[in-house]
Structures are given as C-alpha cells and as structure tokens.
Amino acid sequence: MINTRLNSTSKIYMIQNSKYLLLTVLCLLFAGCSSYNVAIDAIGQKKGLYYVIKPLKEDASSLVFEEFCTYFDKGLLAAGFVKAQNEDNADIVIFADYHVGDGKVVTSSYESPVYGTLGGGYVSTSDGGVVYSPIYGVVGYSNTIRSDIIYVNMLSLSAVNKKIFVETKQKKEEWAIKITCTTYNNDLRKLMPTLVYAAFPYFGKNTGGILDLSLSEDSEKTRSLLMGKP
C-alpha cells in the first residue's frame, strides 16, 4: 500500500472542488423558481379619469371576463383611474382583448458537466491511521436535447373616447397597451394577475417601443399581495 501525503495545494484544490459541487447543487435546486419575461408596448397619454371596461370579443356576462375585470380594476386604480358607476359617467371606454396562442414546439440542446473523481491520495488521520481522500471535479460533458411546448399569452387594453364612441361608434383611441408573455403552459387565468401587475405602471403612458421586463420570485410575492390569485 502506497502512503502518500497530500500537499497543501492538493488540499486547497479538494476544498475548492467541494465548494463548487455544493454551489452547483444549490443552483439546480433554485433553478425551478418561477419567473416571467413580459413584453409591454404602450402608446398614447392619459386622458379621462372615469372608465368602464368592455370585452372586445367575449360576452360581457362571461365569468372569465368578470374575473379578469377584478384584476383590471385593481391595476387601473393603482394607475390613478376611477371606475365609473355606469357608462354615462365615464370619460373613456376600455376594450379588453386577451387570448393564448397555439402551442409551439421548440427544441434546445445544452451541455451538462459530468462530475467524478480526478484522483486522490492517502492522508494521515489524527489517530495515526490513513484514509483515502478523493479529488472531485468535472470529468467530461454530456449533450442533452430537450423539447418543450411554449405558448404566447396576450392582453391588450384600448381606451377610447366615450363621447365619440357613443355618438359615432368610432373608437378614437386615447391610449392603448399590449402585454405578451411566453410560458410553458396555457393557463391564462393563472397568468392574468401577473400580466396586469407588470403593466399597470404604464396604463395611459407611452413606452416609446417594446419594453422587456423580468419578474422575479419577489415580484411574484408582491403581485400576489397586490392583485390576488384566481
């Protein structure tokens, strides 16, 4: 049996690799935390204070529309708008449109490190014995191919001048906003509070183009408190 003492450099290398392995495991564990990438495109400027909301396509008595209106109302209130008691008292009529696109299969490939022993040696213990101490590290890489189905979720709000709409049925826009988000599921009811939470700071404003936002886990908790969940 060969008795080889590891020098200080080897011991440091062992410690660094152990820390690296632990960090990798933690990253994999926390990689499952949900986050959303949201694209917002707003145009126009705030005109009118009191509003009513109507669906662009769906029946106004739809239970889904009624549920979504609870989020729209909270977002509009946070943006400084006031819900009118009826259309006669409104300054603007906001038409809401929303849908989930057909699923699209996307394929991606990536390399994953393969960990193993790089060697090692025997070290002396405090009681005079010896133990084998391996050195861990990356011994290679494996190529992984993954296929997923993604869905594009969309919400748009168009605020039109109520007086002109009532008199001529023409929809003269005062402001409009479109929010899109790509997800791995088509549950728009679950996603809607997040879309409104991300967008309400831009109601009645102009983003000057598409604005890309990323909502972290902390943002999700804040959204839950502010908007509620279905």
Task: Give a verbal description of the structure.
The chain is α+β, with helices and mostly antiparallel strands and 230 residues long. It has five helices and eight strands, in the order H-E-E-H-E-E-E-E-H-E-H-E-H. Strands 1, 2, 3, 4, 5, 6, 7 and 8 form an eight-stranded mixed β-sheet that branches. A hairpin with a 5-residue loop joins strand 5 (104-124) and strand 6 (130-161). It is elongated, with a radius of gyration of 28 Å. The chain starts with 7 loop residues before the first helix and ends with a helix. Mean pLDDT is 80; it is low at 1-33.
Which range best describes the helical content: under 10%, 10-25%, 25-40%, 40-55%, 55-70% or over 70%? Answer: 25-40%
Structural class assignment: alpha+beta
Global geometry: elongated
User: Measured on Cα atoms, how large is the radius of gyration?
Assistant: 28 Å
Biggest sheet character = 8 strands, mixed
Return the average pLDDT rounded to an integer: 80
Poorly predicted regions: 1-33
Following the backbone from N to C, one meets helices and strands in this order, namely HEEHEEEEHEHEH
Number of helices: 5
Count of beta strands = 8
Estimated share of beta-strand residues? 35-45%
Q: Give the terminus-to-terminus CA distance.
A: 67 Å
Q: How is this fold's topology laid out?
A:
Elements: H1 8-30, E1 36-44, E2 50-55, H2 63-78, E3 82-83, E4 92-100, E5 104-124, E6 130-161, H3 162-168, E7 173-183, H4 188-199, E8 210-215, H5 217-227
Parallel strand pairs: 2-3, 2-4
Antiparallel strand pairs: 1-7, 1-8, 4-6, 5-6, 6-7
Helix pairs in contact: 2-4, 4-5
